[in-house]
Amino acid sequence: MREIFKQEMQELATGLVTMADHVATAIEKADQSLRERDLQLAEEVIDADDRIDELERQIDDLGISLLARQQPVATDLRIVVSGLRLSATLERMGDLARHVAYVARGRYPEHALTGRMRDVVSEMGAQAVKVGQQVYELLKTHDLSLAAVVEAEDDVLDRLHRESFQVLLDEDESLTRQQVVDAVLLGRYLERFGDHGVSVARRISYLVTGDTANAVHVPMSQDQPGQTSERLG
Fold this sequence. Notes:
80% of the residues lie in helices and 0% in strands. The chain is built from six helices and no strands. One of its GO terms (cellular component) is cytoplasm.
């Protein structure tokens, strides 16, 4: 029974890494579809979101099954519960990538935005792509220094989000009403993507250290206890 339990815990970990890989790909393609007016890429992101949703269901079913059959305690319980929460967060990140792709598809063959606003949102998209890639690596490695980087990248997204509102208020901007709506929505989608990336980073930090007070903000050095002892898989 213990071997089966170990195998299922590994399956849980593998499923989360696979899910994060799909999310990273989704936000990269969504960003590219928006910048390059690529209808095919936008459609790929929208269609691929079903796979992310299916992975979440599989992880949730496995996690609930583990709780019911194995009744894990202590570290094992923390791992299973963290897995369930991480799958929900990753699913939301996939949804946000899909929303970006919806905007790109809806404005095709035109650019959704122009001028300074397009530049700011493009920067936000590039930062979101970084977060997606870092979340994927974080779930593979449980490297707390990378968790801190994820939070730092989110600070950049927050700054750019604030800048986007300043652009909207700029009297020299000549955005249409639809562009104003798109700018607000895209800024929100990308900013929330970063927020969910921070949620993943803090969950992994808690999983590794067992400490919620200083999660992410103060990464532990490599020689401190608890750095890599508790992992999803």
